[in-house]
Specification:
mainly alpha; about 325 residues; two-stranded parallel sheet; globular; binds tryptophanyl-5'AMP; 3-stranded parallel beta sheet; single chain
């Protein structure tokens, strides 16, 4: 029998999950378990590159796990785990640091953005974060890494590391590919559609666990464009606000852009914004309700992350042993 292809991804529990995380990443992970061997984790080690409140980090990590499951990731079919529970991530992260160039890390746009935002804490971890991310990926030898557009550069760097490492030691790592959705890869903020949706601008960000009335209100207030046409038409250059709403609508309903333009032809932006808000509310409602139910069952969550860490460690340690052997570390 042919072996299943492998898929892996993670999200930092540095804030509450939002619509960008859902449409750019998680939606693409779900319902794949029949086809792929899947590993999804809470990237808690990455979050400390920016200062975190410990109690909030702990709470959000568990909430994120409950939300993963509520989004349709069945723990029986997907390996769900907490990054810091699998020590191989830190171990391979160190090794890969030594195979990642200063110049490469300096070019990462996320490093440039975050160091501009957190001038008082430009720590080494923030700089070397992409080699830890490469370790997260390569430990599981995945074929595909489903992420939003903003993480593509880090996956490309991982590919460079694979080429460099395999060039020296032979075929140690499988070459991973970024897997980026057609609609939803880059969801922009509702209040400022020039920048991606992010928790740092909460008024323009829709959180998975938000109340339906708050979500509807955010969409009603979404910035549309000041062009004279005032018709629902996809044109990210001239109509960034409307185009972003179209992207969201396409991603949640599965409709294509032409169908959406036809559906709202002759209608103003107001009716369109309400329709997008309603579609998002209905998509998120079952997720919110299911996540709240799962979160109440702490024993179940503990069982899921404990078993997840066991399964993940088994696979990760196999790769780590291979790497250690290749680079000349004496076997224990
Ligand atoms: P993070 O935690 O910033 O984001 C998690 C996922 O959500 C996607 N995303 C978006 N997609 C569309 N529109 C948006 N506005 C939007 N905002 C976020 C991101 O592209 C990502 O897929 N370094 C990673 C976490 C990570 C990881 C990994 C991912 C650590 N190790 C290994 C994959 C494989 C990060 O900070 O993503």
């Amino acid at each position: 029998m042919e072996e299943k292809k492998v898929m892996l991804s993670g999200i930092q529990p540095s804030g509450d999950l939002h619509l960008g995380n859902y449409l750019g990443a998680i939606k693409n992970w779900g319902a794949r378990a029949e086809e792929f061997e899947c590993f999804y984790f809470m990237a808690d080690m990455h979050t400390i590159t920016v200062r975190q409140n410990p109690a909030d980090l702990r709470r959000r990590t568990l909430e994120q796990l409950a939300q993963y499951i509520a989004c349709g990731l069945d723990p029986e079919k997907n390996t769900l785990f907490i990054q810091s529970h699998v020590s191989a991530h830190a171990q391979l992260g160190w090794v890969l640091n030594c195979y990642t160039m200063f110049g490469e890390l300096s070019r990462m746009t996320q490093f440039k953005d975050k160091s501009a935002k957190h001038k008082d804490n430009i720590n080494g971890g923030l700089f070397t974060y992409p080699s830890l991310m490469a370790a997260d990926i390569l430990l599981y030898q995945p074929d595909f890494v489903p992420v939003g557009e903003d993480q593509k550069q880090h996956v490309e760097l991982t590919r460079n590391i694979v080429q460099r490492f395999n060039g020296i030691y032979g075929d140690v790592f499988k070459m991973p590919q970024p897997y980026i959705p057609k609609a939803g890869a880059r969801i922009m903020g509702l209040t400022a559609p020039e920048a991606k949706m992010s928790k740092s601008v909460p008024e323009g960000c829709v959180f998975l666990m938000e109340k339906p009335e708050d979500i509807a209100r955010k969409f009603k207030r979404a910035v549309t464009d000041s062009d004279t046409e005032r018709c629902v038409h996809f044109d990210p250059e001239r109509k960034p606000g409307v185009s972003n709403l179209m992207n969201i609508y396409c991603a949640v309903t599965g409709k294509d852009r032409q169908a959406v333009e036809a559906e709202f032809s002759g209608q103003g932006y107001g009716a369109f914004k309400t329709a997008v808000g309603d579609a998002v509310v209905e998509t998120l409602r079952p997720i919110r309700e299911e996540a709240a139910r799962i979160l109440a069952d702490k024993a179940y969550l503990e069982k899921v992350y404990t078993e997840g860490a066991q399964k993940a460690s088994y696979v990760a340690n196999k790769t780590l042993r291979k790497v250690y052997k290749k680079i000349g570390f004496v076997a224990r």
